[in-house]
User: Fold this.
Amino acid sequence: MAAPNKGRRQAGSPGRPGRTLALFLIAMVALTGGMFWSGHVTPRLGIDLAGGTSITLQAKNTPGKPNAINKTNMDTAVSIIERRVNGLGVSEAEVQTQGSSNIIVNIPKGTNEKQARDQVGTTAQLYFRPVLTVAAGGPAAPQPSTSGSPSGSPSGSPSGSPSSSAGTPSSEQSAGNADTSASPSSSSTTQGRAVTDGLKKDVTPSPGASSSDKPGASESPAPSATPSADPATAALEKKFTDLDCTDQASRTKANQETTPKDTIVACGTNSAGEWEKYILGPAELEGTDVDDAKGVLDPQRGMWIVTMDFSSGGTKKFQSITGKLSQQQPPMNQFAIVLDGNVVSAPSVSQTLGGSAEISGSFTQQSAQDLANILSYGALPLSFQEQSVTTVTAALGGEQLQAGLIAGAIGLALVVIYLVAYYRGLAGIAILSLGASGIMTYTIMSLLGPGIGFALNLPAVCGAIVAIGITADSFIVYFERIRDEIREGRTLRPAVERAWPRARRTILVSDFVSFLAAAVLFLVTVGKVQGFAFTLGLTTLLDVVVVFFFTKPVMTLLARTKFFASGHPWSGLDPKRLGAKPPLRRSRRVSAPTDPKEA
Assistant:
């Protein structure tokens, strides 16, 4: 006879309920501690419950496209802005058109207003342009040119005008940068300010790209002081000379009515935070050539960077431009990354580079992810001017929130009354489980506010109330399975373990259906309904966690106590009250004797 397998636990055995319960309690304490440590001890409320900020944007026609303001472009802009500010769809930001040329963005209270305004107002028109001239950012007179006039293409280019695109960051920066306050610098570390937060950024080559450390100590060429016979060149020289990068109005005026094919002037800051001004050639590589962008932490350098991957077409353009620029002399071997008219960075190129880029520098996690978010979702089809920023009051207010919470409390009280009346002592287990589920739900919602921007609106509150019934239903399924086993004549401890596999399957199927419905609702709807679906799905997952890691271990431990094991009338497991059958006992049947002598 084969010996029993002692290494495998038999089905229906209690396992180690104490260890499982301890792990659950540790996790709950950790989440609660994390909530208090983060400083966000209450869930962030949606705009319908807490009010927020309303931003009005007015569309402006793009130069060269007088009829750009149309329904298609406005709808596209709404979609892009909504993805920027709404993240996973649960931050409750509202984006909608007003009239034919305005977009209204409502952002819930608690959102970083500056960050939100940067996100919605940034057109994110990204271009890569060759640098023709760089000088100090003030309105000082330009120095004589030493390497050609700003004609829109670097002089001496072996094959015409370099593709005004650039895509993958260039080489590591040169160690000795010229002081731009003394003379215009052609240093390869020319840096600019990102649109998101004004931090200085620097572009370095993507992994695998070799770097070149060109001296870059020579003075950078400036427009020729001799009057040009070409009126366009003369106008560009005057525009460059008059440009004062320290003045916001001058910077804004510099690129009005320009197109990607124009040679432009622009401003940026160097590594010392000083303004520099540029003459930049036409753009041939644009933000639409960026396939993906991410804000990531570089573990080797311990700094946040923004990585960009180009499309196949963008990669070819980038290889072409870097091949041409690598043969030029400073500063004409540089390309400028221009975001909404501002030079974010202007690295130098020493060789042909591949199809990926990274922007590095003084990024924080938030600023890196913000810039990557803007680049990933694409440029707006229109330029927008911020018309007004106002504070709005709650659409529903505290009275409606209070009414919703009262409704939830009434529903919870009715569930508790039913459990006590019908299940008696078992109701204590159910109430403890509901309490554990409530604590987990509250802490997770509080942490999701700063984590993913989750905001609790009234539909989300409704989803949490519905979840009370889903959670209570799981307890009822398990309790009824235990009662069925007791009715069959089993004692409590075996009944608890034999009932669990059957109840477990039913609970998983029921919760799977609820979660599937919530997931489909989340995917096919927009706006506030997504808050309801998200909360319903979250609480359904927590129901599975609570039943498996709290309710079942607690039931196993209490089955060992005298109160429940003896079938006390108030335990809810009284065999007599349940109509239990007497235990089935096998007995040997004795046949009646047939021989009278044997009787």
